[in-house]
Structures are given as C-alpha cells and as structure tokens.
Design a protein that fits this description.
This protein is α/β, with parallel strands linked by helices and 302 residues long. It folds into three domains: 66 residues, Orthogonal Bundle (Arc Repressor Mutant, subunit A), CATH 1.10.10; 81 residues, D-Maltodextrin-Binding Protein, domain 2 (3-Layer(aba) Sandwich), CATH 3.40.190.10; 98 residues, 3-Layer(aba) Sandwich (D-Maltodextrin-Binding Protein, domain 2), CATH 3.40.190.10. The protein contains 13 helices and 13 strands. The longest helix is centred in the N-terminal third of the chain and has 27 residues.
Length: 302
C-alpha cells in the first residue's frame, strides 16, 4: 500500500493545526476521514506520527523529521503538474491566494484581470484571511500565494514588496486635546479598540508600539474589521490604530483626532514558499502583478 498525496496533505495540516477537528475543517473533510488518513500513513510506515497532549495533536520526533519531507513532496507535486502543462505550451491550473486587509490596497482585482488576459487557463481562488493564517497555509500548501501586511522575516518564503503602508493612532474627536498631547504611556491608558485576532497585522504593530515599551493597552472593545473599529472610534468608544490615509481623512472631516506620535509602516507583500520560486503558475501571477505594480521588488527575509 502506498501513501497518496491527499493523505500527506492531511498529515501536514494536522501537524500545523495541532488539532484533528480544526485540520478536518480546513481540509473540508470529516474528522473520521482525517483520522483515517493519519492512521494509514502510520500503518504503511510503521511509525507513530502524533501523540495526544491536552486535547492537541503533538508531533513525535519521527513525525517532526517527516514533516519537512512531506511539505517538499507536496510542493514538488504541484510543480510537477504545472511544468507538465507548460510543456504542452500553456500555463494551466488553479491558484489558491490568501489576502489580508482591504483588497483595494493591493489592487488584486487588476492583477487577476491581467492574469486572466495573459493566461486564460489559470483560475484563481481568493480567500480573506489574517496575515498569520496566510503564512501557516502557505507552509502547509493550502495556499500558493499570500498578499499581506507583514514583516519579511521567514526564510522559508520569498517576499515581493508592492508598497509600504503607513498607520496612525486616532481616537474620538471629543478627546482631541488629550490625544494630540498624550505620551505613549498616556495613550495606553485611554480606552482602546483592538483587533480580536492576535494574528492580525495591526496586533503585531500594536505589540511593537506598546507592549515592547512595557505598556498594556486599556482594551474596552475588539473588532475583526477595520471599518467596524473605525465606526466605534467615531462613535466615541475608544482609540485605534488605522491606515494613515483613512485617519487623516477622518481628521479633515472632523470625525476623529490623530496623535502626532510616529508609527512605523508595514510592507505590503506577496509571499510564496521559496521552493515554489520556479513554479509556472506563481511566475505567471508575479508577471501579472508587475503590470499593476511596476516597482515591485524582491526583498530578503530579515
């Protein structure tokens, strides 16, 4: 009996999720099917891949050693199919793309339009996900590409920067004097609206701004969408971190006050596994991206 690619993908996703039920949901299969895939691999190899720990699935030492090879095999299978299509003279296939933030920022619509014009046999499946979730899905092979705000710090990815996105701290207009004169410590004590997902890029930036200064935010509300957080701030609920152009527009319209304190920007990048650098599908997507973002540049992980 041989191990098939579907079973390998299940192994990788369970290893990344560390939970059988969550992995089954991501794979769109039943928990019993996912469990059967793991058992089949263990039976064929005569190796225990996981042990249960506090309701989680933890890799054994053998499982850890096999995980990297499983990822390489899955990536190789995708490249094999893509190269076979390229030999026939046409780039054909499907791209799974994760996108964090607002799609207008990346101009993903224009990118897909150029891709369709140049390669009509390539289809695209786009998913809205948080940055950390995109990075995890790239590692498991669930996604081919990710468009996200993040620091380029993972050597297993290649990052192509599209632009830099600036952020500002803003809050209710009624607090204008206090906001414009507040120090970092004073800002942290004001009521805050923060992302309810720690994997959100804004959470990472807030951690850099406050937690690394030894300050804890006075969170009074959490929101999973920038537009929802912005409406809460306009309604007088609390402070939030928001895109600079949106913050300044709200300031001009007299709806929000903006802190003068400097906030570092974040690069907007397209990322993919380093091992997929020569994949025809990914090359086609990057070529289409260059038609929209002519200054797109490859950046090395930090």
């Amino acid at each position: 009996m041989l191990i098939d690619l579907i079973q390998l993908r299940t192994f990788v996703v369970v290893a990344e999720a560390r939970h059988l039920t969550r992995a089954a949901e991501r794979l769109h299969v039943s928990q019993s099917t996912a469990s059967a895939h793991i058992r089949a691999i263990e039976d064929v190899l005569d190796i225990q891949l996981f042990v249960r720990s506090n309701r989680n699935m933890e890799l054994t030492q053998a499982g850890q050693m096999l995980l990297r090879q499983a990822k390489l095999l899955l990536n190789s299978a995708v490249e094999f199919s893509a190269f076979a299509r390229e030999i026939r003279g046409k780039v054909e296939g499907s791209l799974m793309i994760g996108i964090s933030g607002e799609p207008t920022t990346s101009n993903v619509g224009a990118i897909i339009a150029h891709l369709r014009s140049s390669h009509p046999l390539i289809t695209s499946d786009l998913r809205a996900l948080a940055s950390l979730a995109i990075q995890q899905a790239l590692k498991t092979g669930e996604l081919d590409l990710g468009i996200m705000l993040c620091e380029p710090n993972d050597p297993s990815f290649l990052y192509h920067q599209l632009c830099s996105v600036q952020f500002r701290i803003a809050g209710p207009i009624a607090w204008k004097f206090e906001i414009e004169s507040a120090s970092w410590t004073e800002l942290s004590k004001l009521p805050w609206i923060t992302p309810n997902d720690v994997s959100h890029s804004a959470s990472t930036l807030l951690s850099h701004l406050f937690y690394e200064r030894g300050l804890e935010l006075n969170t009074v509300a959490r929101a999973d969408r920038a537009s929802l957080g912005r409406q809460l701030a306009i309604s007088g609920v609390g402070m939030l971190l928001m895109r600079e152009e949106q913050a300044l527009e709200c300031e001009r319209e007299g709806m929000l006050a903006v802190s003068p304190l400097s906030v570092p920007d974040l690069p907007l990048v397209i990322a993919h596994a380093t091992s997929r650098e020569d994949c025809p599908l990914i090359r086609a997507f990057l070529d289409a991206t260059k038609m929209v973002w002519s200054e797109m540049s490859l950046i090395k992980s930090q």
